Amino acid sequence: MIFAAILAGGVGNRMGEVDKPKQFLTLGDKPILIQTVEKFYLNSRIDEVIVLCHKYWLNHTKDLIEDYIPNAENIVVVEGGELRNDTIMNAVKYIEDNHELSEDDIIITHDSVRPFVTHRIIMENIEKTQEVGACDTVIPATDTIVVCHDGNIISDIPNRNYMYQGQTPQSFKILKLKECFNKLSDEDKRSLSDAAKIFVLNGEEVAIVKGEVFNIKITYPYDLKVANTIIDDAKLNISDAETGEYKVNLYDFGEE
What we know:
Spore Coat Polysaccharide Biosynthesis Protein SpsA, Chain A, Nucleotide-diphossugar_trans, nucleotidyltransferase, transferase
């Protein structure tokens, strides 16, 4: 089976003075969370979508899903954890408690505030995970990367040709993910910046999937303005495409 875990546990402190976490803010005509969940709910390869959120927002999340995606039997809402990887492991526990797992079962983990993930990216995550066991979605670094350990003096400037910027989804074979996580020391677990590092620290291969520059994470108010511009431009290009002036429907955000 293939599961999607939508990570919606953040409280959105960096979004400024808003009365709710950023995943519940409106993008276009829907909450950001719904824009994201729909990408996975509509994918026929995914058997169940698990939305993980803060305990204080469980009922609100359930109500939103019922309002925008009524009678969706394969979407569940589960309490997240204190940290990102705790939330992912909560998703794994939910799956274990409710399904009989095999070595081939996959979990696709994705930020709730990356609503522009494409069908191609999701499908390639599935394919790469089936092949390798784990994958990360990335784009090549366009800026020079500078390493500084003390916040004052540059320690290194690595070759940009080998540098990539991480996005999501990140996808894993579920039983292997649990095995690797349980092997880590408490110190290693505290050092985790994302789930792919769970595999890296265990010496396991993690394949890469090509992301997209527009697969942005909405973190700051400026990001939300950019996201609404993407939505508006997409709608405009749909209209223009109907006249035959455009060969590409940009609402699919790069899909062929």
